[in-house]
């Protein structure tokens, strides 16, 4: 069985992001020509126990009290799913269906300390790289961040520290001869600590009347006893020493041997001394960079401890510089975590050239807030109230969020059968795995640690609980309403489920949803969904219902996974025993020489693919009729304009014609797609292309779009009509426009593929 496993999988990101061309015309006051308003009645039926947390305070969360454990309740004690929970679930499905942007926390950036991978972590065991490390003090001043660089970095060992403090603090706690357990939390007074942290050392010294002041502005001399060619800059406290500096303590990953001479892997035996002399100008750190490091160390008690000193004494940091003197990376330890080159947000923005101002379809419908820019959505969800509430038994679960830093899962890998072909792709050079979706289960499973600090008890409502609510929509274009209904109903597909609330990794919150449309005009919901599908076919993919992203979404939404299937549970994390740590084993083991695994797509794991029914094909005649109607309306409009023109005086007619010619020229300077989208016959298509080429030049992208359109029209022909075009001579008009060679290549491809 594969070591890599997870209660979730991914819908791969599309190569293209769809940005609606009407986004800049959205208004709550001025209706679209085809704008529709109304309501959608929602009925949600929980197929497994469901839990949506009640509003709670920080104190509730800290205590994990009954308020924290309870299902959402209104003041009258009625149970409900908050509007935001339903809206979030539906928006996510719509984003995937419409090939939208993936929203990633811009502050999120990951880092690593992979000792066995010299490519990722060149600092380990590399004296030349370690010599490049600098030290200094990070200050916050009026919302700005800067590092004051120290002239030199020295080391002082634990024996010398105990000599200076005149006690045995370090020997009693951090030597291999001590009985102190570094792997077990301990208390100093009423405060509990992880003994491996630097803040434990500092407060341990405080508890022994060794305050922080005793570490500052000291004199040091070279420690000849513990210096060698490979152990430079070793010092000891000496009131007559010529070196001035401050002792800086860092974390203790393991116990140290106090035997001399010391051998490799004898454990951490040294702390640090930062030279008192500051060199150069302060090095600025942008707010964005600081937020990245704050994210990296957000769970670190040492970060919280050191951050409190940023406005006074400064935060002690180790760092590397770029050639231009800017900060390359930094950390709180000598061999600190190295940030990856790119954050998830930066990787995602590469898909759409980083233009966050452009609206995708979800932004256009649901609204958005980007910094100071915002757009109010044209859909509003109500709370969904339970009609038959019945509390289930209590469940105790581990509800921690998985870490997206684990690249064998969260970064798309090149490989086969769950094993990479060569080296892993990482956040340095890879692409995001895609949209995360938890597996829909046929039941639930439970997992707890029996540690009240980690476990959480919840009180869900039972399976078959029914919730009802509404969606209010205003001035949605027909295709937008079609997209919304598609997201609600999974394109009118039975046995596809949404997931709402907490406990989704364990099977909680599997929900079936029905939607009843009430609009201000009589309208067929399936036809709206077909129009949305057609839009995706025209703008994004050749065939939406057969696209891999869509197939992955629908396959994951189907009920396939049993409650206790081990392949779809969490991997085992054993910090104390690397040989039993599945996260390490999956990456080749402790030495990195084993098989390197990655998380396969769900369709590969199950060898199943579910393709939704194409509503565009089902309603092809109705769509063609609507298209014809729109074309007729355009012709009628043009005729009215022409008739009006004829009634004008001769001079006015001449001026109008001149203006018309200018407008015609401008109109033709448009993307090719706008010229050919409505063509449904090859002669019409070739005619439109000819007129377009009078004012435009064709790019490689235009040529690709034209090819898809030619193939689409040819494929849609009846068999006897296709036979008329099976002679290359019939394609002369196209050959004159794109060249004989290109035309021949397309013709051969259509014949060979039996289109």
How much β-strand is present in the residues?
15-25%
Number of DSSP-assigned strands:
29
Structural class: alpha+beta
The residue-averaged pLDDT reads 89
Helical percent range?
25-40%
Overall form: elongated
Could you walk me through the main structural features you see in this protein, from its secondary elements to its overall organization?
The protein is an alpha+beta fold and 755 residues long. Among the domains are: 8-108 and 346-613, no CATH class; 673-752, no CATH class. 32% of the residues lie in helices and 19% in strands. The protein has 26 helices and 29 strands. The strands form nine sheets. Strands 2, 3, 20, 21, 27, 28 and 29 form a seven-stranded antiparallel beta sheet that branches. Helix 25 (732-738) crosses helix 26. The longest helix has 27 residues, at 620-646. The protein is elongated and about 105 Å long. The mean pLDDT is 89.
Offer a concise description of the structure.
With 755 residues, the chain is of the alpha+beta class.
Characteristics of this structure?
single chain, 755 residues, alpha+beta, 5-stranded antiparallel sheet, 26 helices
Question: Which helices and strands appear, and what pairs or packs with what?
Answer:
Elements (H helix, E strand, L loop, with lengths): L7 E4 L24 E11 L11 H6 L2 H4 L10 E2 L1 H15 L13 E2 L14 H4 L3 E8 L2 E7 L2 E5 H8 L3 H6 L11 E3 L2 E3 L4 H10 L10 E5 L12 E3 L5 E6 L21 E6 L2 E8 L1 H10 L4 H7 L7 E7 L5 E5 L6 E2 L4 H6 L11 H6 E4 L2 E4 L2 E3 L2 E3 L8 E4 L8 H4 L4 E2 L2 E2 L14 E4 L16 E4 L7 E11 L1 H12 L8 E2 L10 E10 L5 H15 L8 H10 L24 H5 L15 H5 L8 H4 L1 H27 L3 H19 L3 H5 L5 H12 L6 H17 L2 H6 L7 H7 L1 H13 L3
Antiparallel strand pairs: 1-25, 2-27, 2-29, 3-21, 4-17, 5-6, 5-15, 6-14, 7-13, 8-9, 10-11, 10-12, 12-13, 15-16, 18-19, 20-27, 21-27, 22-26, 23-24, 28-29
